[in-house]
């Protein structure tokens, strides 16, 4: 059979069924046609006949007949089908890339996933980050739509599993920057509460709860005041120990120092927005440190977006400083 090619099974594909391997590489290949090719022996693994449920091992060689001419299908993956402008946009956000992980500096206002009224989101743009790899990149965590900053994306199934495990086991250290109303006292500390969804007309919001309440989950955050503007504003570094929805926003509001521009939790009476500051959420995922799937530790830092950079300039905050303050807090906790 002319036009036969061969492909090596990579480490990330170990344990995958042969039919699923073909579905991953050739999504347009009809199942019935795949079975026909297997029955006739046109598809082989290490030169031997194989079945659809054959489990693959790293390094094995899969014999691939000329599927395109027989099925009208084209191989998956390496080429993105995104419009060039969308591909250029998502790639412009990349601040780290290696064989396993991509990190982007997500701008505030860009949703991570789709929903009602959301046409453009990170998940819908991930094909633009293939860089000619066979596998489509995968999200491993989330940021609120109006929160900018570091967002990690796995390039393989194995990397997604490893990063997900690290996040679940709390092996990652995250640092956020926020502009809050007033100045928290003491200047550094730990916030430990329980949170649950707020019912009724406040659907989508979170609220403080008691241990044992239905749907209540423990939430813990660390904070430190970095700089302040008199008694009216302060730049706070935050580190979420747990990862609950809206955790940092609820915690700062509960502390009496809500994040400036927060449409859900900013509840200061008789508040007048100062001139020169945009009335949008001032929360930025500044940095993440996490075990790398291939060993060692990955550390990524994201610059402030235009909205918060403008505010930092207005208050003469030094946005070039690192995150040692909040990382030290977490190291002491550990």
Characterise this structure.
This protein has 334 residues and is α+β, with helices and mostly antiparallel strands. It folds into 3 domains: 5-71, RNA-binding S4 domain (Structural Genomics Hypothetical 15.5 Kd Protein In mrcA-pckA Intergenic Region, Chain A, Roll), CATH 3.10.290; 84-165, Pseudouridine synthase; 173-333, Pseudouridine synthase, CATH 3.30.2350.10. Helix content is 22%, strand content 27%. The chain is built from 9 helices and 15 strands. The chain has helices spanning 18-25, 31-39, 67-71, 84-92, 122-125, 157-168, 247-254, 306-314, 324-333, and strands at residues 5-8, 44-45, 48-49, 61-64, 94-97, 101-106, 138-139, 148-154, 173-181, 188-197, 206-209, 217-229, 233-240, 283-291, 297-301. Strands 5, 6, 7, 8, 9, 10, 11, 12, 13, 14 and 15 form an 11-stranded mixed β-sheet that branches. It has a 4-stranded antiparallel β-sheet with strand order 1-4-2-3, with no helix packed on it. Strand 5 (94-97) and strand 6 form a beta hairpin. The longest helix is centred in the middle third of the chain and has 12 residues, at 157-168. The protein is elongated. The chain starts with a strand and ends with a helix. 31% of the residues are buried. Residues 69-77 have low confidence and may be disordered.
